[in-house]
Design goal:
This protein is mainly alpha-helical and 252 residues long. It is 50% helix and 12% strand. The strands form 3 sheets. It has a 3-stranded antiparallel β-sheet, with helices on one face. A two-stranded antiparallel sheet has the order 1-2. A two-stranded antiparallel ribbon has the order 6-7. A hairpin with a 5-residue loop joins β3 and β4. α4 packs antiparallel against α10 and α9 crosses α10. The longest helix has 39 residues.
Length: 252
Amino acid sequence: MARRRIPVLIAPLSALVLLLGCTEGTETDDGSREQDGGAEQPEDNEDTEETEGSQETPEDGSAEDGSAEESVTAPNVPDAETARAELAELTVAEEGSMTDYERDLFPHWTEDGECSTRETVLERDGTDVTVGSDCYPESGEWHSPYDDMVVTDPSEVDIDHMVPLAEAWRSGASEWTTDEREAFANDLEYPELLAASADSNSSKGDQDPADWQPIESFHCVYSRMWIRAKHHWELTLDEDEKAALEEMLGTC
């Protein structure tokens, strides 16, 4: 029996060493992914679970960017190469003053057919949205790409101006007519409007990318949308803003 025990003991010990080595590596990988996701995820549970699955990606962020891009339904978002070319064409200038600025100088939300611009974007940017006869959503959910939050109450969803109205004023809109400012504030043809959580929109305020940025996984798409909006509306940008946009484009 002794002769029969010896090979039996040796074989499991070797397998055990190999098994421990594999298990240790797996734990390290899982821990890294969980920690990376946790830095950008809400503490809230079910939404986090769904999002973590879409963010389990290589460190280069390419798949993350793809996920963020798929979640954006705003029109005419340029690719990274086009955005770089448009960024180079923008005029760099110091920001203008806020003298005489008022939000009312940018009339919104105007009617788009039977629905207001806000209601149109709520339906466009949401998932499984049902609307009543008055165009207001009765149900649905909205993924806020700024902070990776999912909101199910439409009253808690803000329609963000990608380039804030005050930022547009400082960048050239102070010279526009009221009709031009109204067209800008209700722009459904270019990526100027986006559904976002009220918290993230409040945090952003009227700041440009040099002072405020969304979660890192949305940097690429955010910079491209910002550049296209400023390029289409022929607004200027300052040096710090341009540097921040170049850095964000580097994540694409």
